[in-house]
Amino acid sequence: MKHLFAALLAALTVMLVASCNLVPLPERMDKFVDNVEKNYSNYSQEDWEAASEKFEALCNEYQEKKGSLTQDQIKQVRSAMGRYAGIALRAGAESITGTIQELGDELPGLLQGVKDFIQELGGSQNAPAEEAK
After folding, report:
1. Of 82, 99, 68, which is closest to residue 30 (Cα–Cα)?
2. What is the phi/psi pair of residue 127, to 5°?
3. Predicted pLDDT of residue 59
4. Cβ atoms within 10 A of the Cβ of 128, count?
5. Is 38 in contact with 53 (CB distance < 8 Å)?
6. What is the pTM of this model?
7. In this predicted model, what pLDDT tens digit does every residue of 41-67 receive, in sequence order?
8. What does the DSSP 8-state code read for residue 69?
9. What is the pLDDT of residue 123?
10. Which pLDDT band holds residue 5 (cuts at 50, 70, 90)?
């Protein structure tokens, strides 16, 4: 019984590993990029790191299997790679825009602080001169 269980477990493991390879790379790449595109606005730094690792693994797999892919599959993978790059750029731009907007919201207060500081400097420089008169 123990050997039968071990054999079944081994067979299931082999089937599971084989089933991962049943979905062609172009479809897995598209599915991955679709998921990133759908969720990137909520990504944390850790989510982006995980996505980058997954993307790199898919790109490495593409480099290994490129010779066995059809021209249509190659185009599909390259298209997904371009989409991912665009999403990453858009996310970075949105992050930068958000930071600039946050700084812009703070700018009036910062400018007032600088103005007050300059006035204080000007006032303290004029004070000794006025006392000398």
Report:
1. 82
2. -60, -50
3. 94
4. 8
5. no
6. 0.60
7. 999 989 999 999 999 999 999 999 999
8. S
9. 65
10. very low
